[in-house]
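Hi U.,

Before I forget, here's the chain from the pilot set. I'm dumping it here mostly so it's searchable later in email.
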Amino acid sequence: MAALTTTVVPLPGVAVAYTAAAAGGDDCQTGAGVVLLVKNGDAADHTVTLATPGTVNGLAIADRTVTVAAGAEQAIPVTNDYRGPATGRAAITYDAVTSVSVAVVRVPVS
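Structure:
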């Protein structure tokens, strides 16, 4: 599992550097204003899964799955709902990583 670095977006903006999605999954920071950016350069749709470690009344909360269409980009908010208790980070997996690249940005909230 690769630890993705968060790019903080300043007021003038910033160029976003993407990295290849890791076959074993990635993890990232969570919180207000944190967004996982996913680019799918493949000819097939891909599914990104964010683990949801919490429970409600003893019942597990379903993991978040997001389909990224072929050739598309998707922005996925990474709130503290995805914060793992052991690592303090969100665990991310992919159904496949061929031509999938990712970046994490944090936009300051006022």
